[in-house]
Amino acid sequence: MSYPSIPQYSFYLFTILAIFSLLLKTCTSVPSKLVNVSMAETDPLLPAVATWYEDPAGAGSDGGACGYGNDVRNPPFSAMVSAGNSNLFKGGKGCGACYQVICKENLACSEVPITVTITDECPGTCGDGAPFHFDLSGTAFGALAKPGQADLFRGAGIINIGYKRVSCNYPQTTVTFKIDAGSNPSYFSCVIEFENGDGDLDLVELRPSGSDQWLPMKQSWGANWKIDLVPPQVIAPFSIRLTPLDSKKTLIAENVIPVDWAPGKSYRSLVNF
User: Which residues form the Expansin-like EG45 domain (predicted)?
Assistant: First the structure.
């Protein structure tokens, strides 16, 4: 009886291993597109309720409790905004946070998610019932409906929705500082808007010209922050450092407030998160 030589054994063993490896790869591999879809579908959505207020095709109130003023109507907010109850507004610390919301239970729902920014506080009945209540602008509420059914959909009153926190994304937009009309050489106050990422702020600090010390500003109301100035020690140009509520990442807008700053003016930085 003849037996296979050692080289023949090696060839047989290599062939078997190659076939086994091919079978294993075929059975265990999943197309990346399928993995991505599965992950997207399983992202958690939390229950909330939604209503709408003011103009049916408007931006809610003009600025509301966050102090953004007419900017809520224009890009990058573009009226896709919402007032929030206390769990969303957070005493003003929730101003600027972004949320994805979707409705599926109403026949007029498009079931397509939209993203809104918290720009106002929802008072009164928003404190009752569901722990999270979005009082959407008429524009945002209508965007939840199927094409051509926005007006009918707005008649639904209060609806159940799903929501989740998402990163704010304002392409080609940098953080802007709007100086309060009451500011003066001894008092500086500004509204801060268009922050990417977290969108909200927990800490704002000011550094005067010629200093390496960061002075903490106080939240005045909504997205408005203030500080008392003591000239000549605290003089412009001012740099401002921002720290969001959750991520605690920091961003510095160097010399964003110029020497000749004036109340009522807006100053756009060169940076964003």
Answer: 63-173
Q: Are 138 and 52 in contact (CB under 8 A)?
A: yes
Residue that finishes a domain, picked among 117, 132, 165: 165
Nearest partner of 183 among 242, 236, 255, 121, judged by Cα = 236
> Per the domain annotation, does 104 fall within a domain?
yes
What is d(CA 257, CA 119) in angstroms, rounded to the nearest whole number?
A: 24
Query: What's the chain's average pLDDT?
Result: 86
Whether 133 has a pLDDT exceeding 60, the answer reads yes
Specify whether 50 is located in the same domain as 160: yes
Q: For 152-166, how does the pLDDT look when each residue is reduced to its tens digit (9 = 90+)?
A: 899 998 999 999 999
Range of the domain at 215: 176-268
Paired tokens of 211: 């200093």
